[in-house]
Amino acid sequence: MSQTVQSAAPAQRPTSNTSDPKSNQYCSNIADAAADARFAWQKETLSNLEREIEGRIKILEQKRVEYEEWLRKRNEFLAKADETVVAIYSRMRPDAAALQLSNMQDEAAASILAKLNPRNASAVLNEMEPARAAQLTNVLTDAARRNQEGDKS
């Protein structure tokens, strides 16, 4: 069984089946212009694709900056609960600690709770109003979720 191999032939000027020399001349005259138009179209298409890629790169760069900002905030969040402050709260009675943490900003209170041992943290949360305890627990779980998402990336 024989196979035919087709080779890429160079662009040829179109030939006309008509014997009119003017139409033949017209076809041969526009062949170069048509090729130029095709190259211009290809160049424009490539330029559009390049702009699209650059746009996507900018979006990715914005996401990277956003992630770095989140990471910075997370580190600040964890730094707010100095070990000395955590030690103080761990030695307080749960009802007194609950009263203090209830009046603090969410991030600071949650970071202290996160650094307390689970037994102390649960005792403190048990002494708080249920709505405030739930609010601080949401801050804690959001921080933990973000931390896990950051580890997967």
- N-to-C CA distance: 55 Å
Strand content: under 5%
Q: Nearest-angstrom radius of gyration? A: 35 Å
Largest sheet: none
Count of spatially separate domains: 2
Mean pLDDT, all residues: 83
Low-confidence stretches: 1-10
Q: Care to count the β-strands?
A: 0
Coiled coil: 43-80
Protein name: MotE family protein
InterPro entries: Mg_transptr_MgtE_intracell_dom
Domain Magnesium transporter MgtE intracellular: 82-145
Detailed description of the structure:
By secondary structure, the protein is mostly helical. It folds into 2 domains: 21-73; 81-153, no CATH class. 79% of the residues lie in helices and 0% in strands. It contains 6 helices and no strands. It has helices at 21-80, 83-91, 94-102, 106-115, 118-127, 130-152. It is rod-shaped and about 105 Å long. The protein starts with 20 loop residues before the first helix and ends with a helix.
How would you summarize what this structure contains?
By secondary structure, this protein is mostly helical.
Could you outline the blueprint of secondary structure elements for this entry?
Blueprint: H1 21-80, H2 83-91, H3 94-102, H4 106-115, H5 118-127, H6 130-152
Helix pairs in contact: 1-4, 3-5, 4-6
Protein traits:
153 residues, mainly alpha, 6 helices, rod-shaped, disordered N terminus
